[in-house]
Design a protein that fits this description.
- The structure is a homodimer of 383-residue chains.
- The first copy, chain A, has 383 residues and is of the alpha+beta class.
- Helices cover 32% and strands 23% of the residues of chain A.
- Chain A folds into two domains: 255 residues, L-amino peptidase D-ALA esterase/amidase (4-Layer Sandwich), CATH 3.60.70.12; 117 residues, ArgJ beta chain, C-terminal domain (Ubiquitin-like (UB roll), Roll), CATH 3.10.20.
- The first copy, chain A, has a six-stranded mixed beta sheet with strand order 13-12-11-14-10-15. In chain A, strands 3-9-8-7-6 form a five-stranded mixed beta sheet, sandwiched between helices.
- In chain A, α1 packs across α2.
- The first copy, chain A, is globular and about 65 Å long.
- Chains A and B meet through α8, α9, β13 and α10 of A and α8, α9, β13 and α10 of B.
- Chains A, B: It is found in: Cytoplasm.
- Chains A, B: Belongs to the ArgJ family.
- Chains A, B: Pathway: Amino-acid biosynthesis; L-arginine biosynthesis; L-ornithine and N-acetyl-L-glutamate from L-glutamate and N(2)-acetyl-L-ornithine (cyclic): step 1/1; Amino-acid biosynthesis; L-arginine biosynthesis; N(2)-acetyl-L-ornithine from L-glutamate: step 1/4.
- Chains A, B: InterPro entries: Arg_biosynth_ArgJ, ArgJ-like_dom_sf, ArgJ_beta_C.
Chain lengths: 383, 383
């Protein structure tokens, strides 16, 4: 269903020959209206790929007619030629579809520092356009995969309207050098300002809190397009809830498919003085390589949780900290708590709770364990 | 030579039975004067082990008569009982040596959240005291090892005076959950204020810039003790240079013995607007798991260097960044530079230069690659 679950959209996914192995590598998503409202959120990395620089300009108008996405090359750190290539890609889509290039967003993912094979990409756009279909969502989702083992889609349905989408990658919006690309579509009749509020609110508590390996991509992009074809304008809160639900579902799928991971780790920080404190502490725990190794070894090593908390500027007293792993409070008041032998870590999902005992705020960060397979995949995934 | 290279010091290293495998685990370093001046630098982790809390108090007077160090247990996150145990350890050393407990610094390293076996540690102090020797430096250095494969010592000699020392662990002062403990001694006749300035100046550019895995210990401690027994007071700059040289040598040895590492990586940031910028960028590069994996795979993946730079707040323009790996400028002006095939990465030491083209300041951070062995060692090193 993916990006074509909502009415008013067509999509396609094809193999243009950008990937040397012949796998699908080019996706096209087209908004057939009547509305063409859109919002976007991009990587906060200051080294931005050419497609991000381009698409940020496109989104300024709040109007997107089409999104073209390629895997097999990030078009990042490619200089002026890389930007020209992105521009040419948008122009080509605009020409084929009879739209304006400034309404065509471009997303790329793959290796950094390599120019795209435009002799393959541009003809691929003709092929993709010829295959555009209201049932093309799955094929589009498949064509944006890189190291993903499965394609990721999600749909939430309201009263007569729908939000759906596709995602690839593993990482947070800011992280995941395995770039995260997400395209969401809706047939709800909402304007670009409403889309923008809903999307920013959703990404802040979903993709922003998915932190597989602490590395921030040059290409991360999340787009939300509205066709308005349902003719229904939901209440803003209801709509925002649906967008957040789709983002949360896709974010969880990204963590579940992270490179080399054997555990999905939910880091929940509770009783923080502020939400910012909760996020800072959650991220510090989620990025601690030693803890990630311990969890890989099914070792409930709460000392590594405490030492990660200790590096933050959050409000807490060391001797009031509590930590639970999979429901067992192995650390109480900053010291030894319940018997660590009670902790059952056999399953893929691991739940770490850090209680700061400093307030009432909370935040949840998702991450993965650190494995030999991660090292293998990322030392072999040559640039 | 280690801590007994300088005159006026005696040391011992014995197996007290704290480690279950019977390896040496208790070290004693005694300053026989005439001076007993000292300075110390401790972890910036807010979750501080009991021995750190104690030793910070000891150092306030600028006087240290003895240092007792144990491996086999960090005595961190052990509550009031843990602090009592550290206090009892200092009292025991004081009693055996006939000094005041408040002049006895205590250092511990090993697992977090486990109480020390005081029934073994306290009798061990008697044994160690009986073996104190002006030639005991090597044995002391051996007794503080945990996952270290070799013991680390260094000596620099001035005109009639000496600075020597020992280190264990891998990490920066702040990092390396494999706690870093360092004891330096000198027979130079210098006061505690001079020692403090020399030590802080040295750690800031040496141990503080050794960042094996970005994890900050609860126990990191660096002590510098002066006996004054040479009767010589060197010029302050000359003395500070010697302290910095010993710290740099020990820091390099720590990186060379980091857990599971196959590459030692020198990250040199040049042409930064400020030294703070250079350090921030260097640390960001040094902590990038994806880059560390790539270097493990001997892949000169400069895109990962750029994306790490892009996450910082340092002054730079993305299209003016340059990156060299082992002397080859693989990235020029933020884009593809010299042929990456020219980069020879066969050797253990790898040199990454990041040119920010934004000023004249520089900083060097040392780190390691990320390997399957690191994962193995830290998922098996059970808490």
């Amino acid at each position: 269903m993916s990006v074509t679950a909502a009415k008013g959209f067509a999509a396609a996914g094809i193999a243009a020959g950008i990937k040397e192995n012949g796998n699908p590598d080019l996706a096209l998503v087209v908004n057939n209206g009547p509305r063409r409202a859109a919002a976007g959120v991009f990587t906060s990395n200051r080294v931005k790929a050419a497609p991000v620089q381009w698409s940020e300009q496109v989104l300024r108008s709040g109007q997107v007619s089409a999104v073209v996405l390629n895997s097999g090359g990030a078009n990042a750190c490619t200089g002026p030629k890389g930007f020209q290539d992105t521009h040419a890609t948008a122009e080509k889509v605009a020409e084929v579809l009879g739209r304006g290039a400034i309404e065509v967003a471009v997303c790329s993912t793959g290796l950094i520092g390599v120019l795209l094979p435009m002799d393959k990409l541009l003809p691929g756009i003709d092929t993709a356009a010829a295959q555009l279909s209201e049932h093309g969502g799955e094929k589009a989702a498949i064509a944006i995969k890189t190291t993903d083992t499965v394609h990721k889609t999600s749909v939430v349905t309201g009263e007569g309207w729908t939000v759906g989408g596709m995602a690839k990658g593993a990482g947070m919006l800011a992280p995941g050098l395995a770039t995260m690309l997400v395209v969401l579509t809706t047939d709800a009749d909402v304007d670009s300002e409403t889309l923008d509020r809903a999307l920013r609110g959703a990404t802040k508590v979903t993709f922003d809190r998915v932190d597989s390996d602490g590395c921030m991509s040059t290409n991360d992009t999340v787009l939300l397009l509205a066709s308005g074809s349902s003719g229904i304008t939901p209440g803003e809160e209801e709509f925002a809830d649906a967008v957040r639900a789709v983002c949360a579902d896709l974010g969880r799928q990204l963590i579940g498919d992270a490179e080399g991971a054997s555990k999905d780790i939910k880091v929940e920080v509770v009783n923080a003085a502020t939400e910012e404190d909760a996020v800072e502490v959650g991220r510090s725990i989620a990025r601690n390589n030693l803890l990630k190794c311990a969890i890989h070894g099914e070792d409930p090593n709460w000392g590594r949780v405490l030492s990660a908390i200790g590096t933050t500027s959050a409000a807490f007293e060391p001797d009031r900290l509590n930590v639970a792993i999979n429901g067992v409070w192995v650390c109480k008041n900053g010291s030894v708590g319940e018997d660590r032998e009670e902790v059952d870590m056999r399953y893929r999902e691991v739940h770490v709770v850090a209680d700061l005992a400093a307030g009432t705020e909370t935040a949840t960060i998702w991450t993965n364990d650190l494995t030999a397979e991660y090292v293998h995949e990322n030392s072999a995934y040559s640039s």
